[in-house]
Amino acid sequence: MNDCLFCKIIAGEIPSKKVYEDELCYAFYDISPLAPTHFLVVPKLHLASAAEITPENAAVVGHIYAVIAKLAHELGFAEGFRVVTNCGEAAGQTVRHLHFHVLAGTTLGSFN
Ligand code: 5GP
Ligand code: ZN
Fold it and tell me: Ligand 1: which of 6, 8, 20, 32 to mutate, judged by most atoms within 8 Å of the beta carbon?
């Protein structure tokens, strides 16, 4: 996806502050953090949103959650964090490349 901001970040064409990288995903700090710890985890495969997850590509989501759990332990916030993915404009998605927000480091209000 030539015109995708997060594909450009994954490719290193736009700088980012890397948290973690492997063959399937890339994690980097959000440019406008909403919590003391706020980073994004994205699949390297371009998927526009969670609405494009299928049985064929869903394994990357499990992989991303395993990476998030590993980072939660390594970075010391495993006792409390939130994972959010906004899907579609109506839900506040502004970058159309699937991404998981990881928020931690503060008391997070309840979310129903
Ligand atoms: P969304 O609103 O789509 O769920 O989340 C997009 C997130 O990407 C926002 O939290 C926004 O701050 C972050 N973001 C947008 N542009 C950039 C950028 O160029 N670099 C980084 N690190 N984060 C970005
Ligand atoms: Zn992309």
Answer: 32
Residue of the CA atom closest to atom 18 of ligand 1: 31
Do 41 and 64 contact (CB within 8 A), yes or no?
yes
Between CA 50 and CA 58 the distance in angstroms is 10
65-71, Cβ contacts within 8 angstroms, sequence gap of 24 or more? 67/20, 67/22, 67/25, 67/27, 67/41, 68/41, 68/100, 68/102, 71/19, 71/20, 71/27, 71/102
**pLDDT one-digit tens code per residue, 30-64:** 999 999 999 999 999 999 999 999 999 999 999 99
Q: What is the pTM of this model?
A: 0.96
Q: Which ligand is nearest to the CA of 2?
A: 2
The response to whether residue 49 sits with its C-beta less than 6 Å from ligand 1 reads no
